[in-house]
Amino acid sequence: MQVLIVDDHILFREGLTGLLRSQPDMQVIGECGTMHEAIELALRIKPEVVLMDFSLPDGSGLEATRAILACLPETQIIFLTVHDNDERLIAAMRAGAKGYLLKNLSVSKLLASLRALERGEAAISRTMMARILEEFAQSTPPAASTPSPLIGLTSREIEVLQELADGITNQEIATRLFISEKTVKNNIHNILDKLSLHNRREAIEFARKYGLYPNNNHK
């Protein structure tokens, strides 16, 4: 995995560079600290992944993201930031980012999130993904000609869908979420109906496509 790091805090940037370079499957091919440098460098070296700070001295990570993806649409841009903020989270996703991670996460979780990108998973926490889905569902007009398939999902249904992605049984889901197995079955029925899915396998595939994996608290 070839990575470009964009962060104006030199100590943080150098520390992250050292960490990633210690991993046999990761290669830092560039680093910089401004929006304009990020755009210029990305277009020149064509990284597979960009770790992007939200706030930069001469602009924002959002502007850099849009500019990079306009020319390199296959690039996976992950925001690595201190801002645990719904507005910024949603803005990052709408700009085309493939993930949103906080700088206070552990080294193991950061590395796991980056490696998940290679499996087609989103680099984002379970809680943040739920917030994104709820925001998109609420912001889509009911009368839209092509309504979002996520409209109408409740927070509980999203939780059950996330657990389904782990490939576990209804009883195991019930144990994890502290609800009855009957409630799990009812939620799965509602999920299939609301998302126009035909069976449990399709629900699992849908959840994995959108990166709806449960967190590691159950492991």
Write a brief structural summary.
By secondary structure, the chain is of the alpha/beta class.
CATH class of the largest domain: Alpha Beta
CATH homology-level superfamily of the largest domain = Response regulator
Helix share of residues?
A: 40-55%
So what's the overall shape? elongated
Low-confidence stretches: 140-149
Strand order, main sheet: write it out: 2-1-3-6-7-8
- What is the end-to-end distance? 27 Å
- Total individual domains: 2
Number of helices: 10
Write down the secondary-structure element order. EHEHEEEHEHEHEHHHHH
Do you know the CATH architecture of the largest domain? 3-Layer(aba) Sandwich
Mean pLDDT figure: 83
What does the radius of gyration come to? Answer: 19 Å
CATH structural fold name of the largest domain: Rossmann fold
Number of strands: 8
SS content category: alpha/beta
- In what range is the share of β-strand residues? 5-15%
Question: How many strands, what sense, and barrel or not for the largest sheet?
Answer: 6 strands, parallel
Structure, explained:
The protein has two domains: 2-124, Response regulator (Rossmann fold, 3-Layer(aba) Sandwich), CATH 3.40.50.2300; 127-218, Winged helix-like DNA-binding domain superfamily/Winged helix DNA-binding domain (Arc Repressor Mutant, subunit A, Orthogonal Bundle). α1 links the parallel β1 (2-6) and β2. It is 51% helix and 14% strand. α7 crosses α9. It has ten helices and eight strands. With 219 residues, it is an alpha/beta fold.
